[in-house]
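Batch manifest line 237
LIGAND: NDP
JOB: complex structure
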Amino acid sequence: MPTFKGKSVLVLGGSRGIGAAIVRRFAGDGADVTFTYAGSRDAAEKLAEETGSTAVQTDSADRDAVIARVRDSSPIDVLVVNSGIAIFGDALEQDPDEVERLLRINVHAPYHAAVEAARQMPEGGRIIVIGSVNGDRMPISGMASYAVSKSALQGLARGLARDFGPRGITVNVVQPGPIDTDANPADGPMKDLMHSFMAIKRHGTADEVAGMVGWLAGPEAGFVTGAMHTIDGAFGA
Ligand code: NDP
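JOB STATUS: finished
ARTIFACT:
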């Protein structure tokens, strides 16, 4: 029987890239998958049709909309918060509103979604957030706000693992290194610099990240919680 048959999975930010691979993974393993998107309606509708999942528009920058979406989808067996953005450039020049928006998407949304999901989540539920190796290591300038946001998810996992552990609910962070997506194409201008930090000198694939998420959500990972799981070709080593 497929691993997630009869399980309800909500992926925040599932229309493209790593999120889309996660949607495909769970749908392929029999789950009933709902995913959100913000701007990519065409990609979302195509993916929903391909996988038999449900696409709903919800902006992760809007706290109340995120909470309402999670509530409407509950009870959820597996919550994956993948939506995330980066901004680049001199910290002294960045628009504070842009930094604020990044923090709402990358930190506030995962926190409030996790708490809301846990209200009705059954015993053995799984909460997985997509962080970044930049939560551990930020070897270049111009990405401090992104590093702040991904480090914050480590505290989220450690803290909420304590809150929800007594109910058998696990909370984990998956921390990718460079992964080939629209946000970080394998042939992009930063490729050689990024690969110079790595032991395996290539971008990872979204499917490789989805595989780790699938394992964390599955029956073998019930004792794994409050932890960071780095998948980065040793970028952070
Ligand atoms: P992409 O930019 O390729 O895709 C981002 C996905 O998140 C899209 O589905 C997008 O939906 C969704 N999203 C973005 N903003 C919002 C929002 N406000 N509300 C709802 N959905 C939103 O990114 P990646 O796949 O590369 O990254 C996914 C996650 O992995 C992020 O959290 C990122 O920080 C993390 N990560 C990525 C790495 C990489 O090298 N690619 C490395 C380390 C971490 P839509 O298009 O509809 O707006």
